[in-house]
Amino acid sequence: MLGLLKKPVVVTAEINMNLVALTVLGLMSRLWGLSYPRAVVFDEVYYGQFVSLYMKRIFFVDDSGPPFGHMLLALGGYLGGFDGNFLWNRIGAEYNVNVPVWSLRLLPALAGALCVPLAYQILVELRFSHCAALGAALLILLENSLITQSRFMLLESILIFFILLAVLSYLKFYNLQRHSSFSGSWWFWLLLTGVACSCAVGVKYMGLFTYMLLLAIAGLHFWHMIGDQSFSNVSLMCHFLARGLALLIIPMAMYLSFFYVHLTLLYRSGPHDQIMTSAFQASLEGGLARITQGQPLEVAYGSQITLRNVLGKPMQCWLHSHTNTYPIRYENGRGSSHQQQVTCYPFKDVNNWWIVKDPGMQQLVVSNPPRPVRHGHIVQLVHGITTRYLNTHDVAAPLSPHSQEVSCYIDYNISMPAQNLWRVEIVNRESDTDVWKTILSEVRFVHVNTSAVLKAINFHFQLSGASLPEWGYRQLEVVGEKLSKGYHQSMVWNVEEHRYGKSQEQKEREVELHSPTQMDISKNLSFMAKFTELQWKILTLKNEDTEHKYSSSALDWITMDTNIAYWLHPTSGAQIHLLGNVVTWASANVAALVYLCLSLWYLLRRRRKIYDIPEDAWQLWVSAGGISVGGWAVNYLPFFLMEKTLFLYHYLPALTFQILLIPIVLQHLGDHLCRSLLLKSMFSALVVAWFSSVYLVYRTFSPVTYGEPSLSVGELKGLRWKDSWNILIRK
């Protein structure tokens, strides 16, 4: 043992100076002057709001995707000591001194910088030369659009980083497959593939496209393994389970963990609560939780309740009535019952309270012990303030003439008897004997006489697009929906506020309806229940897509016929645009076209048993195309099917894969089509000249990539290489 101490401990390491240099250049290009401009740049106005909400622990819902990307941006704010106090209300607003601009923009910039060495390593793992790999990295380094997008508090650079990391990890894992299966490094790269895929999906759902591509490639590789007789059945099963664990189980677990952290951090009530169910709202600190804390859990005969419509969009509303009646005749000449109006009211109000009554008894208080209402029970709903019974009959509703009018019954001594019996159907019941529960139970009310279902007609579903007229105080219509097969959320209600009624006298009961509840019963949701609801909201909640000045179609992206003005200096001509390197974009399109044409030519020739290139070169050509062309296709073509407002930055992940294809095609042409020394020399000279033009264009557009120096009117006009580009010129 002492003998070992006589010799020094020596550690040797191999350092790829290409990687070091590329990493340094990437950091310099993305981090230089990162705090400039010290103003809100384009979508920072959108993501900044969520960062502020994270800092204040206030719950929100963003229908653009999962929360992981937002949490990374918030991490930058946290590291910079941001307290969330900034009003993100307009692009160009100057940041005040308490906003750590550099810190907020740091993580996207680091992600963008690391994409440069990742591109280099991907081509090395694809078995291309270091020269080709260096070319790919430099093209990423000098791509103006990628620089612009990575220098601000935006998510695309983070998404592209995780996408490239997933591709690199899988390639390293696959290359280790032949001689180091189940080694430590084999497991590391396989697991990192799954982790990177889940992170990409967690940043934006666009990451799902590359994840599906890698799953397809992994499936194809495993299919080839099945045909390899050198693998035993046990070995194949182990490989299958390892891939299932790393590429399916771990990504799903990580995806859940993003939401777990998100919901743990955002425990306070906020402005987005109203689109969530009452149970979800009650689980947050403040807001509805202040009102519902301590309510009785089981609804009983005599309970005083408010009924919230489960749909909750475009706004939440509660079953409501007031002393006013329906007009004898509507504007279109149709008659009504002239009964007391029943509506859905989007604000909390004492007129939202109802009493659950047993039809066989007269009392409006809860007995001792309470008699709970169960699924299938018949009840009457008595309006708390006016003491009139919820009723429907064969009279057309005011705005929905094919449905029945819902009212509170007034006895006019005419031939229209009360029809006020309702059957309680618990939609989310576990058995037919379930008790109706506060907040947790989702309930339909089925009219006993006509089988109509109590339904709120929200703005979203009205063909007229309007609420009730002035006589209904612009409140939302409530109807009895006939012949209802299945159910829609607009037909489902839940008890939000609840107390056990104790006062039989009307005046005492009115005082009781205004007072808070006192009983203490918790209604906390489990994480999986909250995750399921939040995930469903993210997938189904869509804001109204409006035409934006800088929105574009997917066809505009290939030829870069569009741009986006990100920022304009308030006094000078300094400005920042999302504009790509024209030479790189055009070269990427040419490379894709050459790849497709050559692949088709090779396939036709191979069909005729003519092999123009060696088999290993063919396999390299196919595998490289599967990654680069496949990555471009899966990240681009789906946008033709999307009905959403699209912007040029949506094309950047696809563009990144297409850029990787350029050196792949160039090396293939140089190795296999330029056969003579003269042709190779001429080809090399052309490549050098072409790359010089890439750098020249990068330098030309640098002022609108970095926002400085400020350009004159003439210089700005000189940058308008296409008439469709909107370069801002101050008059």
From TrEMBL:
Chemical reaction(s) catalysed: a di-trans,poly-cis-dolichyl beta-D-mannosyl phosphate + L-threonyl-[protein] = 3-O-(alpha-D-mannosyl)-L-threonyl-[protein] + a di-trans,poly-cis-dolichyl phosphate + H(+); a di-trans,poly-cis-dolichyl beta-D-mannosyl phosphate + L-seryl-[protein] = 3-O-(alpha-D-mannosyl)-L-seryl-[protein] + a di-trans,poly-cis-dolichyl phosphate + H(+)
Presence of the UniProt keyword Glycosyltransferase in the record: yes
Domain MIR: 296-359, 370-427
Family: Belongs to the glycosyltransferase 39 family.
GO molecular function: dolichyl-phosphate-mannose-protein mannosyltransferase activity
GO cellular component: endoplasmic reticulum membrane
EC number in record: 2.4.1.109
Gene transcribed to yield this protein: Pomt1
Cleaved signal peptide residues: none
Protein name: Protein O-mannosyl-transferase 1
Membrane topology according to the record: Multi-pass membrane protein
Pathway this chain belongs to: Protein modification; protein glycosylation
A Pfam family of this chain: PMT
Membrane-spanning intervals of the chain: 9-28, 68-88, 100-120, 154-174, 186-219, 240-261, 582-604, 616-634, 646-666, 678-698
Subcellular location(s) of the protein: Endoplasmic reticulum membrane
